[in-house]
């Protein structure tokens, strides 16, 4: 009987935490980082501020939890992608996932950094966030190498390679989320960006071919 009660309580706690994060994500989408307060999250999720404080110390912890969740989801997505279509196809598949995560929470990271300043680095949750970011980088780098090997495409040996790819993907994601190129078909922009990034990280003279 005791074990059953424990499981029930744990399930309820997880459900309440999920409701809190979903409410926070909706508020961020509607009003940006300024709209995220403990009171507004409580109202949106239909719970009390006291209950939310049981799971999150403040609104920063809620936002960081969303960022961590975003990184974990993106890592799992990249790890599951097929490698046999080559680098450009891999990047073209990564961009829509990046768009989803950028629209949900990523686009507000610069605002969070500006508003909260250096104090955000004092948090243990930020250490966890850095670790999840590192895992995503590792997963994406491994996927690029494996996809390149599948099409016999030599990549540049440069420490800037991964940052170049990530920056390019984020740039396209930001453009699509903000609709900065309404005259372009999104799929055409994704395909062009994926091809351009691939050429940018390929060794000079490399063309690549399926094996």
UniProtKB/TrEMBL annotation:
DNA-binding among keywords: yes
Highest taxon above the source species: Bacteria
DNA-binding region range list: 37-56
Alphabetical list of Pfam families matching this protein: TetR_N
Domain HTH tetR-type as annotated: residue spans: 14-74
Keywords: DNA-binding
Name recorded for this polypeptide: TetR/AcrR family transcriptional regulator
Source organism of this protein record: Streptomyces endophyticus
């Amino acid at each position: 009987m005791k074990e059953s009660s424990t499981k029930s309580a744990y399930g309820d706690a997880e459900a309440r935490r999920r409701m809190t994060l979903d409410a926070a994500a909706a508020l961020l989408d509607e009003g940006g980082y300024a709209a995220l307060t403990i009171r507004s999250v409580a109202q949106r999720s239909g719970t009390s501020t006291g209950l939310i404080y049981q799971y999150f110390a403040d609104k920063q912890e809620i936002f960081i939890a969303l960022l961590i969740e975003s990184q974990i989801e993106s890592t799992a997505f990249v790890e599951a992608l097929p490698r046999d279509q080559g680098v450009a196809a891999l990047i073209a598949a990564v961009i829509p996932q990046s768009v989803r995560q950028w629209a949900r929470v990523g686009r507000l990271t610069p605002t969070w950094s500006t508003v909260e300043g250096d104090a955000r680095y004092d948090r243990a949750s930020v250490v966890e966030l850095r670790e999840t970011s590192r895992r995503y980088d590792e997963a994406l780098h491994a996927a690029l190498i494996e996809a390149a090997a599948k099409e016999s495409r030599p990549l540049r040996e440069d420490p800037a390679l991964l940052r170049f790819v990530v920056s390019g993907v984020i740039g396209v994601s930001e453009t699509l989320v903000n609709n900065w190129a309404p005259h372009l078909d999104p799929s055409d922009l994704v395909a062009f960006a994926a091809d351009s990034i691939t050429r940018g990280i390929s060794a000079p003279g490399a063309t690549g071919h399926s094996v």
